[in-house]
What does this fold into?
Amino acid sequence: MEETEAPPQDKRFWGNAPIALSDIKEQEQTRFSTGISEFDRVLGGGTVEGDVILIGGEPGIGKSTLLLQASATASQKGKKVLYVSGEESLSQIKLRADRLNVSSSNLSILCEVSLERIIKFIEETSPDWIILDSIQTAYKNGINSSAGSLSQLRECASDLIQLAKKDSKILFLIGHVTKEGLIAGPRALEHMVDAVLYFEGEKTGPFRILKTFKNRFGSTQEIGVFEMAEKGLKEIPNPSEIFMSRSPSPAPGTVIASSIEGTRPLMVEIQALVTTSTSMNFPRRVITGVDYNRVLLLLAVLEKTFGTPLHKYDLFINVVGGIKIEETGIDLPLIFAIISSFKDKPLPQGALLVGEVGLSGEVRGVSNIKARIKEAEKLGFKKCILPEVNLSSLAGGKIECIGVKDIVSALKKFFPN
It folds into this structure.
């Protein structure tokens, strides 16, 4: 009787058997620092074994630069790193590495798009870190579609993720983004990985912001702030100073707001410009850095409660530095910025604002008020306008805290006419 050939072994087979939850031994997850503290902050303190991280962002924003700098630091600390590029040649990567002053014998560069060859080199060299730049360039034989297609993305990512999980390797995947700013490909790709990070910022400006969209091993609210310099990405340990102007005198429509990004208090400058509408039909609304619909809601509250005829005026709003704020604690600063521009009267110098505004114009309390006030004291603020309900949790301090119940009384106090 002829022997039948054994089926090829599935490399995604882990060989595990079901085990009772109560019998699983607890293992402390040790984190490994990337050597970039702002990167570590976003990851939740560093990477863990078997971590799979997907990083997206517009072309030229600095994704490859960030990972090349991180891989150099990791390799200098003894980690074996394999940097796989499907978009650049060896000489191009070498030029960028020289500019960044990156050099290490533990850092290997591979220019390859064939998934089979990539996995072959991973098995031969057994690196601790694997970086694939980008997942859209990987190609697996046997799938009748071009690289970057949905099926190629799904299969290539699945094989690499299974390999990383099985051998407890750390895998970074760089992903292209669509014109809407989302990572190109199936959303299943985001479900398969442990963390999804987005690199944001104006390419013409120096500042970059790394945000977390998903993180199984940390918070999804943290941000990392960088400056793109000649020698690569430079960390910004105190981002509040770059998001605020230091003009000698306050200007109408300019307000400093206090926001919380993860555990970090962040002071940002909000600018508003209210001008007579040049349109015959609808006034213009150009809003950058804050939620468009949230601003429309606040405009409706202002017209209803304060009687400001903003429907006759064009409105322009900008958050300085290119950062995007999603917290509702900037409602009160937005309203003050709009009325300040409308009345052409600046707020007192050294004033800080924070507070959420409800539909009836009431000012609601915000979280982490002590951390916000402490950060404001370090930056030299003298006065803070905040929700009255938050006053009870504050005692002493160098800042004069002014509590407000609703926007009508608050605005009349600072803009009596």
Summary: The first helix runs from residue 37 to 43. The domain at 29-237 is CATH 3.40.50.300 (Rossmann fold). The CA atoms of residues 62 and 199 lie 8 Å apart. Residues 1-7 have pLDDT under 50 and may be disordered.
